[in-house]
Amino acid sequence: MEDKFIKNLYVSGYRSYELSIFQADDPKIDYIKKFFKRKLIEYIEEGLEWVIISGNLGTELWMGEVALDLKGDYPELRLAVLLPYTNFSSKWNEVNQMYYNSIIERADYINYTSNQDYANPGQLKNNQAFIVKNTDGCLLFYDSEHEGKVGYFYEQALKYQERHPYEIETTSFDELQWFINDLLEEERFE
């Protein structure tokens, strides 16, 4: 981030189930959102214009919500949702679909990298390839010691970075825990 202007940032990370989060009111979500809100503000203050997500449950939709909330203080910020195929959330339960729709309906830009319903895993890989080629960098909630589906994007971003300028920032579980500890310490003294 220090030596490259990031205008378009892909934000992704663990799916909610990979974090053992199964309820919308799980307190872990608030801490994750607070952490990434601080991160996004740093990027915005450096010139970030677009937050891009691909609509996955968990980190991506939480960051979509954070980006939309930040528009109150940073009206120039935009949210783009680049979905891998049509009817992306059709197999999700009603609660998850409602949450997804609440983010999608307020996004500034929505499009698909495949104009058909799910047909094969290649649609997911093509979506990731499109995103990595059309963003300046990524902010990932990803810890190499803990597997997750975001690891596929991370590997693709590393390969792309070998031949192109591309910023990759990852957040580990330890980094998030240090943030939570500091936050709890701050709250104790308020």
Describe the protein.
- The protein has about 190 residues and is of the alpha/beta class.
- It has six helices and six strands.
- The chain has helices at about 25-45, 60-70, 95-105, 120-135, 150-160, 175-190; strands at about 10-15, 50-55, 80-85, 110, 135-140, 165-170.
- It has a six-stranded parallel sheet, with helices on both faces.
- Helix 4 crosses helix 5 (about 150-160).
- The mean pLDDT is about 95.
Question: What spatial form do the alpha-carbon principal axes imply?
Answer: globular
Name the assembly state.
Answer: single chain
Helix content: 40-55%
Major sheet description: 6 strands, parallel
User: What proportion of the residues form beta strands (DSSP E)?
Assistant: 15-25%
Largest sheet strand order: 4-3-2-1-5-6
Radius of gyration: 16 Å
Please give the count of helices.
6
State the order of secondary-structure elements, H for helix, E for strand: EHEHEHEHEHEH
Q: Give the total of beta strands.
A: 6
Q: Compute the separation of the termini in Å.
A: 32 Å
Assign the structural class, choosing from mainly alpha, mainly beta, alpha/beta, alpha+beta, or little secondary structure: alpha/beta
Q: Can you give the mean pLDDT?
A: 94
Low-confidence parts lasting 5 or more residues at pLDDT below 50? none
